[in-house]
Structure formats: C-alpha cells, structure tokens
Design goal:
With 642 residues, this protein is an alpha/beta fold. Helices cover 50% and strands 15% of the residues. The strands form two sheets. Strands 1, 2, 3, 4, 5, 6, 7 and 8 form an eight-stranded mixed sheet that branches. Strands 9, 10, 11, 12, 13 and 14 form a six-stranded mixed sheet that branches.
Length: 642
C-alpha cells in the first residue's frame, strides 16, 4: 500500500497560549474575554499581519499561526511579546494578559485548512516550556535564523518532550536584547565618532547581539570559558563584586598567551542560569570551563571555583577561599594563576616573568572597588546623565585608592563619552587624555591602560606612539577580544590593513557573541585589507537606515570591487541621497588617513559611481586639501552624480 498523498509544506509554526487562563476566567470571565480580545485586536493580529502570518486556529486562550519564513515567525513572537509587556506594565496583576510562545520549523500536512504533524507538536511543547512572557525556539528554527534576527538566542539545552521520540534542541529568545559590555565611542579614530554615536542607540534598541557566521575552531591552544560567578549573598554589592571578579579573571587569563580565553560577551549569556558545563563548552567550542560563586557576609567573603574538563565533565581542580573582604583581589589573582598552571600542565610553561606581567596592582580598599564597579555600570547606559554619574563614582574610587589603575581607565571612557555628547568638550577631552596617561603610569602592566593611552595619543595625531602603546596592550593581553577590537579601528591608520582584518577574524573566533555595533568598525577593517566579500557580509548584519557615510562608502565600493556593479551603483545612488557632497576627494581628505586608506578609496569609489571631484565650497574649508589629478587639472568630472 502506497503512502497517502497529502498536501505538505515546510512552514514555521508559532504556538501561543495565555498563562493562567482558567484561573482568570474563574475570577473575571467577562473582563478576561474583553481584555484578551482587545490584545489580539490591538497588538497580536497587527503583528501577525505585518509579518505575513496566517492564523490556522484560534482557541479560547491561544492560537496556532504559520509563516512561510521562520525569521518572520520569531520576529512576530518577539514583537507582540514586547508590546504586550509594555501594556501590562501599567496594569494591576489580575488584569494582565501574559502569553507563552513556542516556534518551530517543520514539514506539516495541510488538511481542510488545518495543519498536522510533528512540526506542530514540537511548537506546542516548546510553548509549554517557555517562561511567562517568553519565547522558546527549536534548534531546527535556530539553524535558519543566524545572521537574520535582531534578538539574541541563548542555548537552553536538549530536552525530551512529550510524544516526540528524539531530543529537541531548545533556544530561549532574549527579548530585552543584549547591551555591549563596553561602547567603542571613545575608542575609535575621530573620523568614526559621529557614526558611532548614531549606531549605538540602534544597537541598544535592536538588541546587542546579531548572530553572524559560525566561529571557526579555536587554535590548538587550551581554550577556557569563565562563566559568570554566582552571587549567593543576594545583595547588589555582592552581585557587583561577583561581576567584577568574573571580568577580572577573564582579563588576567587573557594576559597569558598560552590560552584562548572566551570574551565576557559570550559567557555573560549564562548568568543566573543553571547549565551543564559540557553543554556550555560545546556551544562555545572550548575545552575547559571555569565556574564559581561568591558569598559576602559582613566583613568576610567566601569564594568557590572549579575547573571542569568539558570532554569528560570531570572536575580537574577546585578550591574554596574564606577571607577578609579586602583580600578578594588576592583571591582573584590566585584563581587566575592556578587555572593557568592547570591548563599549562603544571610544568612551568608560564614563565615567572610572564606571571609578573600578568598581575595587576591590587586595590587596597574594597570600597574603592565598589565605586569602580558602579561607575563601570553607569558608563554602559550611554546617556549624558549616566556618564556624569560615572565620573562621580570613579572620582570617588580613585580618591579612596589612587593606585586603582582600572578606575582611571574607566574615567577615560566616561570623559570621552561626555565629550562626544557635547558636554564641556574641551575640558572632558583634556581630562580623558590626562587620566589615560595616569593609568599607564600607575600600572605599566595593565593592558587596558596602555590601550586607552594609545587611543588618546591617536586622537592627538601622534600615530607612532599610539601604535607603540596599542602593541604593548596586545603583548600584555594577546587574547583580549576587547583590545583586539580597539586595534581594528586603527590598524589601517597605522598602515597595517591586513593585520586589522586578521584581528577581526580573531575577535569573531574568541567572541562569537560580539555586539552588532562592532560591524561598523570590522567592515572598514576588512575593506581596507581588500577583503571585500567579508566587508559586505559584515554589513548585512546592519539595517541600511543605520548606515553612516563611511558605511555607505565601504559597502558600495566593496560591491563594485567584487564586480557586482548594479548593486554597487544602486548603493552609491542611495548614499548620495543621504550625503550629497560625498566624493572621492571628500573621503581622501578625512583627517588622519594613511596612504593605504586613501589609495583604497581612489581605487574603488569610482567603480561604484561616486563623483571624483569635491565642490569648491567643500575644498575652501580645507587648509591643504589632497586633490585628484583630473580634478586639479580642471577637467570635467567624468563621473556624474546619479
């Protein structure tokens, strides 16, 4: 007997269900129905329609919706869950309508306007596993989402679900997005600052992580992921201490060139989530996982840490510390060194001189460290008010402990951001330069201190010393994705475009969750190295409405260099709509460009259709403008503006 012929189709299935429907109906049947109908009419149905979904069935407390695109299905779920949450915020608990949502991609049978099959069943089971107000996504759907979604997805393990024989990979959609650990606004060449200020709000609005490309395997070096230390104290001060301890261990381990250390960006997604270390290691492609916890009670602190072999799940090393609170920084250094010895096989692969260079000067005052952590938190809010508060907290930190180099480093970022926001720009510029120099003078072994001092020098136009400082930062912390990211904005300026592109490769390998805004800096690095295809792929992560002048030029010129002429011309036309005065000459006259950068623009921009010659009024604003021969000779511009 042959298989029954059914109308089958690969569809994305969204299953939604109201939380506590029966209880709500029992308490207020009329009100519940009224509120549910209003939310469907005002929020859910418009989201479904906008994302081209089709409602298959509507139950009293839920719905089954199908989409031709899994991207549309997950985006629809995220959008209506967020809008429902906003509406609920102003309502008392009994009046709130909350949903769970599951999304799957599967082959389903279409029968009389309904859908059947395992694909539907998996979506329904995922909905049941979702948290109230949350969205669960299957592994099958996840595999088709990477690089196409504005919200990050956290791996939640494999689970056996009812009536499905095989385990189902599950991912949790993070609806609040992900804030970058550190903005690049004050850490990039001055020609990119305007673009950076415009990009950061979009990055925060869309969610800090956009998935792009699977990371390539790590090198043969031992690789380790440091998971966020748990806070058993429960209070905010202990939480900040746990966060600071986690970050400091990552920073110290990154100083050892014998290791590959995952960036904080990639491990922070596991904060406050019980996870199997082997699953985490598989997701991050590392061989070892370090996890631990901190508990602070009055004037004492208890810290536990253990190193786990991801292949076997065995604990290779564990330790407990019960110390006076002020000794927490010595514990941090001790943890980093013990893990270093373990990964190195305990045979002295890390020489004594390397260990000495890896150590930071420890602050002597715990209160100062708390102020430092508070200031760091404020910096990441990216508002004028928060940056001003950050300066206040950090000033207090260095008042209590003038030797706390990391607080001086953070002061550089805070003053730099205030300058960019237009708050007393001259005084904040001078303050940023002063604290950067002080940071490196206080602790010459602190890699970030050298990095911010190098960026400060670059902003002054002292490229030779800037490069020396950034090279020192990388020598001290060769595995720091943050410092590598800083360097990508300067490599072509230093005449090393290929090195800049290689650094981008390394950041993506060490930090697969690198933030979306980094594309604004990574794409030019690829472009300047002549890796045009990589530059275009990087920019595909960004929405065109977030493009700035440099972004348009890099995209259009890269497409032209790849021979994709029609796309390049269309991109150039769009760029000129936004920037009518954009020409080859205007780009080569950007402040501080190297010969490599100017040559790249001269070589590729005409291929895209950009005008060659700057207008007289634009040239009049420049003291000594660089000119193209055809423009200087007074020839008619051979490339007409579209």
């Amino acid at each position: 007997m042959g298989t029954l012929a059914l109308d089958r189709k690969l569809l994305a299935i969204l299953a939604a269900d109201m939380v506590g429907y029966s209880k709500a109906m029992e308490a207020d049947e009329i009100g519940t129905i009224k509120r549910l109908k209003a939310i469907r009419a005002d929020l859910i149905n418009p989201a479904i329609s906008q994302r081209h979904g089709t409602v298959v069935k509507l139950m009293g407390d839920g719905a089954l919706v199908v989409f031709d695109s899994v991207v549309d299905a997950v985006a629809c779920a995220a959008e209506f869950q967020n809008t429902v949450a906003v509406r609920n915020a102003d309502l008392p608990d009994p009046e709130r309508i909350i949903f769970r949502v599951g999304v799957n991609l599967g082959d389903v049978a279409l029968v009389d306007g309904d859908v059947y099959g395992d694909g539907v069943n998996v979506a329904a089971r995922l909905e049941q596993l979702a948290e109230p107000g949350g969205v669960m996504v299957s592994g099958t759907a996840y595999d088709h989402l990477q690089g196409k979604l504005d919200w990050p997805l956290d791996f939640a393990g494999e689970q056996q679900v009812k009536n499905i024989s095989r385990p189902v990979r599950i991912y949790r959609l993070r609806l609040d997005g992900k804030r970058a650990r550190r903005p690049l606004l004050g850490m990039i060449p001055r020609w990119t600052k305007t673009a950076a200020v415009a990009v950061v709000p979009l990055a925060l609005a869309c969610g800090g992580v956009w998935w792009f490309l699977q990371p390539e395997p790590l090198s043969g070096k031992p690789s380790v992921a440091v998971l966020p230390f748990g806070n058993y104290g429960g209070d905010e001060a202990s939480g900040r201490l746990a966060d600071g301890l986690t970050e400091d261990i990552i920073t110290d381990l990154a100083r050892f060139p014998e290791f590959e250390v995952m960036a904080r960006n990639s491990t922070e997604v596991y904060k406050d989530k019980p996870m199997d270390a082997r699953l985490v290691a598989g997701a991050l492609n590392v061989g070892f996982v370090l996890e631990g916890s901190i508990q602070r009670q009055e004037d004492r602190v208890r810290i536990t840490a253990q190193l786990i072999d991801a292949k076997t799940g065995h604990h290779l090393w564990s330790e407990n510390w019960d110390r006076p609170a002020e000794d927490v920084f010595a514990v941090q250094t001790e943890i980093a060194e013990q893990v270093a010895n373990r990964l190195g096989g305990g045979v002295g692969l890390i020489q004594e001189a390397g260990r000495a260079a890896a150590k930071r000067k420890r602050p002597e005052n715990l209160n100062a460290y708390d102020y430092y952590l508070l200031g760091s938190e404020k910096i990441e809010k990216l508002t004028k008010a928060d940056e001003s508060e950050a300066v206040m907290f950090l000033d207090r930190a260095v008042e209590l402990d003038p030797g706390l180099a990391r607080a001086w480093v953070e002061l550089y970022h805070a003053h730099e951001l205030l300058e960019l926001f237009g708050v007393n720009p001259e005084s904040n510029r001078k303050a940023a330069d002063d604290v950067a120099e002080r940071a490196v003078r206080i602790d010459p072994s602190d890699a970030e201190a050298h990095a911010v001092f190098g960026m400060s020098l670059a902003n002054k136009g002292d490229m030779g010393r800037a490069k020396s400082e950034l090279d020192t930062a990388l020598r001290l912390a060769p595995g720091s994705s943050e410092i590598l990211t800083f360097y990508t904005g300067f490599a072509a300026r230093f005449g090393e475009p290929d090195r800049g592109a290689q650094m981008v490769d390394k950041v993506m390998r060490l930090d697969p969750n690198y933030p979306m805004w980094a594309s604004n800096f990574f794409a030019p690095a690829y472009f300047m190295a002549g890796r045009y295809d990589d530059a275009v792929k990087m920019l595909e992560r960004m929405a065109p409405n977030s493009y700035q002048k440099w972004t348009w030029v890099v995209r259009s010129s890269s497409l032209a260099a790849l021979g994709r002429t029609d796309e390049a011309n269309a991109s150039a036309i769009e760029a000129l709509k936004h920037h009518p005065d954009l020409t080859v000459e205007s780009m080569i006259n950007e402040p501080g460009l190297s010969t490599v950068e100017r040559s790249r623009f001269i070589e590729t921009m005409p291929l895209a259709g950009f005008p060659a010659c700057a207008k007289p009024e634009a040239l009049a604003k420049l003291a000594n403008p660089a000119r193209l021969p055809e423009c200087e000779a007074g020839e008619v511009n051979p490339i007409q503006q579209p």
